[in-house]
Amino acid sequence: MKCAGMMRCIVVAGLALMLLSGRGAADVATDEALQKRVEELEEMVRELSSRLEKMTHERAAEQAAVSEQQEVLTQLSAQVQEMEDSVALSPDSWVNRFTLGGYGEFHGNFDEGSSGDQFDIHRFVLYLGYDFNDWIKFRSETEIEHAFVSSESDGELALEQAYFDFLLSDLVNVRMGRVLTPLGIINMKHEPPAFYGVERPSFDRVIIPTTWSSDGVGIFGNLTPSLTYEAYVVGGLDGSEFDALNGIRGGRIKERPSLNDVAVTGRLDYYPFAQRSARLGQWLRLGASTYLGGLDNGNAGSDPDINGDIQIYSADFEYTISKFDFRGVVAFENIDGAREIGNGTASEIFGWYLEAAYHFWPDSWKTGKLEKSDAAAFVRYDDFDTQYGMPSGVERDPAGDRNEWTFGLSFYLTPSLVLKADYQIRDSSAGDVENAFNLGLGWQF
């Protein structure tokens, strides 16, 4: 009998031995029965051979698919490696060391009375930073105000910040260059989404004139996880530019400040909930700041020969609980030599404001395009007097004593883009201040 394959041959040989053995043991089987049994076994062998052949083909197909997948993975791995080797994607590339950002605000101002209404591209600001490594970082802020800069316009192009941070430890780090004078709230956080109201509080225009930059060097860090600090030695103010209604605002030197009469300035911030969770989403910051310096400083070394100095003491707070926000600032300024300065400069300036806001936007409305939206209603009261205390023999200008109520709404399309509207009720001891309605769009990126 001819074998069809190795397995079949084995089976048939084994069967033959069984048959021969069976004949010798008991002569009860017939040739027909044996033949039938052989045919059944041959059919089984053919079926097993067919299955084996099918399995062999399937295994070959699987191996081909695996090989194809391995080839694709090899190609992808090569592409990933090529991307990792790319200069643009390397963490050490100069491209990835840059940071870019900015903020801006459009205003529509409508004063009651005879004043002209206006649309104002109030600010357009670009941030630019560069990380030289993980501990030396450069940051800058360049601002255009009122859209157009010329000798006939109120527009201004200014470098408001440009400093290096040398990050040495959590406790002590060094900052050098043009920094924000660390007084109050708005001077430190003046991006439009960070404050309520179209315009910044009037307190931050004449009491702590915002934005106020100073050139110098100092240190900053964390004294504890709950307590942070900043302290700088900086160029001082030009006392000859102080006046009765704008206070110390004109004394800021924006080009090349003199170092004739330097100042020291600094602040402490305490965060009571920094190391523990608080109910109802509470967050609290308590701050205190100061500025102490001489007034005989001018631009590019042209000092005005002012024999005087200034001391500023300020305290502020920010508090959030549930859907409510509260903040406030108070500041007192003492000016020695105010009589010699003239211009109606006061010997004492004082001001404060309190603000409360309620986030009323329902969570059920935060869907689709408005998924990250929010809205808040706020009220703020400013009280400030740039003629709070006068030198002997100098008459007080009642127009320096002012206050205002501001009521408004802020609608955040996203956390960094806000539509604003407010109404301001203004008053002064001189009684000649107009109320105002303001609209605004502010952004930060």
From TrEMBL:
Superkingdom, natural source: Bacteria
The keyword Nucleus is assigned to this record: no
Secretion signal, residue range per the UniProt entry: 1-26
Keywords from the named record: Coiled coil, Signal
Coiled coil residues, start to end: 31-86
Coiled coil listed as a keyword: yes
SUPFAM superfamilies tied to this protein: Porins
Name of the featured protein: Porin
